[in-house]
Amino acid sequence: MRSTISILHILVHAIFWYVVIDARTIVDSHSQPSDVKYFESNLDTNIGYWSPSTSSIDWCERNYVVTEYIAEFWNCISSFSMCILGTILFIRGLYNNVETRFLLSSLGFVLVGLGSAYFHGTLTHLGQMADELPMVYSMIIWGFILYRMNEFKQIKTKLFATDILVVFGIFYGLLWTYVHTLQTFVLVFQIHFTLMVLVALIKLIHLYRQPYHHVYRIKYLLIIHLVLLISAFVCWIIDQQLCEQMNNISQFNPQLHAWWHVFGAFHCHLGIVCGEAMRLLSIKHRQHQIKIFRSPQQSFKPDDHLHIVYYLGLPYIDYSKEKQTNKTKD
């Protein structure tokens, strides 16, 4: 255990210091980026508080229209929808004493929202990194949750396999941080993140197909989860492909990239709730398997172990009966 911790300590510090040292030259190399992705033939030359822009991409929304202190007003404001939903999940998770993995996922959700708001509000290279890097970190945490959904053994009893997954996730995140911070990929990042989302979605659907996860309420949430993802993706594509028409012809830009943030926020919220639901059913199924050896065999009915409540139309896992059961056992 000590050797593993030492390896992680050395790995984190080595890569971290490389990033810190190279970050000193990043400011100069990105102060006047020559290869910036725009979505209009005429470049947006509006000047504001954060000018000049140092990011490698400038979205469809016209800059500094609402206020001189926010580059892309609606894209910035809509990003806080992720912060709000993520904070609610985190607070409920603390109150219900959920596993740390879901608390980290909720915190990652919040960081993505804050980074997105910072990026769209400033259009700086640092803001772009604050937006795109937490997106990758959050997907790494989400991947760990999905691929450890049915794992119950403690780290001490299964040290090697667990540590390999954790070390790989940390190493991958730091490596991507190092490379992406220096190069600021646009297309590569978009393809990379899309693949991560698709792999996670396929894994989530595969987990639902397991008998002890096969609950109609989860199926309902998964359908909405998928619909929201498709809606967000459509908004994201149209905002880029029809940007010039919406800005010049319609006289009213519907700000579809802002809607991408909102749909994406609810999509992530439902994803985390589905993850919590499946994890709870996995734990209950495991407990049921242990009880089979002590009492007459009974079939496992997942519907009896999952309770979902709704607040303002948003679903949450109801842990009240679970907490009452734990108190009775104590």
From TrEMBL:
One of its GO terms (biological process) is ceramide biosynthetic process. GO terms for molecular function: hydrolase activity, acting on carbon-nitrogen (but not peptide) bonds, in linear amides; metal ion binding. It is found in: Membrane. It is an enzyme of class 3 (hydrolase). PANTHER family: ALKALINE CERAMIDASE 3. Hydrolyzes the sphingolipid ceramide into sphingosine and free fatty acid. This is Alkaline ceramidase. It comes from Adineta steineri.
